[in-house]
Design brief:
By secondary structure, this protein is an alpha+beta fold. It is built from 14 helices and 18 strands. The strands form four sheets. The chain has a seven-stranded antiparallel β-sheet. A hairpin with a 4-residue loop joins strand 5 and strand 6. Helix 11 runs antiparallel to helix 12.
Length: 451
């Protein structure tokens, strides 16, 4: 089959290196303003699962590697690093079973769109904190979303997936049907050996009184803030999400202590907020709330920190250390950041539900920290990436591993482990079984990550 035949067989579009739109189409695959080197020989903009099947069969016959692209939000641009990129942007269907608390979601549905659609029916899902991220890579990597302490890591709310395998067949995998594929798809990230064309997920009753309180402190109060957070969160219900956001200011870093309460009613929300405020350190620069913050509205708070078109370098770590020990190197990193748009985020989840062990997702901790390098100009790439990597080096003494959705996969020597050794070994074995020719060519990434 030649390219012309492939084009004739699909409802979508095939773009080659020789097409005038190739450069712009290639760059558009990656959300980050910092684009990877153009690599794809073919970009297939699929319009259906059948298009994905045809493209996979073509790639297999031609000996090409394949990468699916949902929203292109993994900050290293891994979605664009293959001979053929299958762009799933047109696969954005969504159907809700409101009575059954179930949904079928195609890969290009964004967190914002899903959250808004569910909220209209009094339902919710642990959608990710960045609204423009699509469910494809988010769920494939695990999915750390809103109210995750109560609802769990998002991939464990996946009931089944529709997957195009390396031979072009379309299967449905669940706990009882193709269970090895179902195990791998929940947390396998870029090492997964297929292309998900739809997720079937469990939904939850939306919190009727989601409420947030924000207290902003100067960096000099970091120890007091960390001790207070540990104390109140040790007694807090699992519906509380407690995050520290470290921003740069001309006067030095500031720490926003953000407590989001996903309460069932107003009385519960007020009682929890009052308990969280007990013993809060003095010296706050600003206090906001309690204020109503339904999940769709929360995206209005998170989106301004990550402006589209800017250049990003991001890395992350899990930790079981004391919060003060994990927070200190993050505050120091923000103080040294070349760009004052860079920031750090750390979430404490001591009362979160235990992570199930029946999936590839296998690396976690009571704390997750993320460093975001954000800058506008290409000439500053080297300085900002060096800052990012030095910042994570300082966190390594307290780190257990990293979260693949926000890991620096280009880090020299490889990122921190994103899977447990046992999960990495099993995923590699399943990859060889289901994709013996290495069609989905990213397995080397996780072999590095597991070492």
């Amino acid at each position: 089959m030649n390219v012309e035949t492939l084009s004739a067989r699909i409802g979508g579009t095939v773009i080659t290196r020789f097409d005038p739109v190739y450069d712009s189409a290639s760059d558009a695959l990656v959300w980050n303003g910092r684009k990877p080197e153009r690599q794809a020989s073919l970009i297939v903009r699929a319009s259906s699962a059948a298009d994905v099947q045809e493209a996979v069969r073509y790639a297999a016959a031609a000996g090409m590697t394949v990468s699916p692209r949902g929203g292109g939000h993994q900050f290293t641009g891994i979605a664009a690093r293959a001979d053929m990129v299958i762009d799933l942007g047109a696969l954005d269907g969504m159907s809700l079973d409101v009575a059954g608390c179930r949904a079928r979601i195609e890969p290009a549905v964004t967190n914002t769109r899903l959250a808004a659609a569910l909220d209209r029916h009094g339902l919710a899902f642990p959608t990710g904190h960045c609204g423009s991220v699509t469910v494809s890579g988010y769920l494939l990597g695990g999915g750390i979303g809103w109210n995750a302490a109560a609802w769990g890591i998002a991939c464990f709310s996946v009931l089944a997936v529709e997957v195009v395998m390396a031979d072009g067949t379309l299967i449905t995998a669940s706990a009882t049907e193709h269970p090895d594929v179902f195990w791998a798809v929940r947390g396998g990230g870029p090492e997964f050996f297929g292309i998900v064309t739809a997720y079937h997920v469990r939904l939850y009753e939306a919190p009727r009184a989601a409420t947030t309180v924000v207290r902003v402190y100067p960096a000099g109060r970091q120890t007091a803030v960390a001790l207070w957070a540990e104390r109140v969160m040790a007694k807090a219900p699992e519906c509380v999400e407690f995050t520290l956001k470290v921003d740069a200011t001309p006067q030095g870093p500031v720490i926003a202590a953000i407590a989001s309460v996903f309460a069932a009613n107003e009385a519960e929300a007020q009682a929890i907020c009052a308990a969280l405020g007990q013993g809060a350190p003095d010296g706050a620069l600003e206090v906001a709330g309690p204020m109503p913050t339904p999940i769709p509205a929360l995206y209005g708070f998170t989106e301004p920190s990550t402006p589209k078109g800017h250049r990003y370098g991001v890395d992350t770590f899990w930790s079981d250390a004391r919060l003060s020990d994990a927070l200190a190197p993050m505050v120091e990193a923000v103080a040294r950041a070349p760009s004052k748009q860079s920031f750090a985020v750390m979430t404490l989840r001591p009362n979160a539900r235990p992570v199930p062990s029946e999936a590839a997702f296998s690396c976690s901790g009571r704390i997750i920290g993320v460093l975001y390098g954000v800058w506008p100009d290409e000439e500053d790439d080297a300085a900002n990436l060096a800052w990012l990597r030095a910042g994570l080096d300082a966190c390594r003494p307290v780190a257990l591993g990293s979260y693949v959705g926000e890991a620096d996969l280009d880090r020299p020597g490889g990122p921190l482990p994103t899977l447990s050794p046992a999960a990495a070994a099993r995923l590699a074995e399943l990859g060889l079984r289901h994709d013996p020719a290495g069609l989905f060519g990213n397995r080397a990434t996780h072999r590095l990550a597991a070492e």
